[in-house]
């Protein structure tokens, strides 16, 4: 078993946040104490299948080809 305290207070940037697998990953990261910023093209998706999950994270909308936006989010 991994040490879940590793994630406590860490900021994590997850692309494809509304995807099925990423939604589960985000839930686990949040449960382990991480601060999650999700990035996706669509405001709707698998995050909606996890009640209350979206309220516990930050979801940014955009395209992976928008380099200035991604650089800004990563620097924040």
Task: Explain what the structure shows.
- The protein is α/β, with parallel strands linked by helices.
- The chain has helices at residues 20-31, 67-75, and strands at residues 11-15, 35-40, 58-61.
- The chain has a three-stranded parallel β-sheet, with helices on one face.
- It is globular, with a radius of gyration of 12 Å.
- The protein starts with 10 loop residues before the first strand and ends with a helix.
- The mean pLDDT is 93.
SSE topology sketch:
Blueprint lengths: L10 E5 L4 H12 L3 E6 L17 E4 L5 H9 L1
Parallel strand pairs: 1-2, 2-3
Core attributes:
alpha/beta, 3-stranded parallel β-sheet, 3 strands, about 30% helix, single chain, about 80 residues, about 20% strand
| Tally of DSSP β-strands | 3
Major sheet details: 3 strands, parallel
Percentage beta strand: 15-25%
Structural class: alpha/beta
What is the overall shape?
Answer: globular
Give, in spatial order, the strands making up the sheet with the most strands: 1-2-3
Q: How many helices does DSSP assign?
A: 2
Distance between the termini: 31 Å
Helical percent range?
25-40%
Succession of helices and strands: EHEEH
Rg, nearest Å: 12 Å
Calculate the mean pLDDT score and round it: 93
Identify low-pLDDT runs: none
């Amino acid at each position: 078993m991994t040490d879940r305290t590793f994630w406590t207070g860490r900021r994590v940037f997850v692309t494809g946040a509304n995807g099925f697998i990423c939604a589960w990953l985000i839930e686990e990261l949040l449960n382990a104490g991480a601060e999650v910023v999700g990035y996706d093209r669509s405001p709707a998706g698998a995050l909606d299948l996890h009640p209350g999950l979206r309220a516990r994270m930050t979801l940014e909308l955009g395209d992976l080809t928008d380099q200035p936006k991604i650089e800004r989010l990563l620097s924040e």
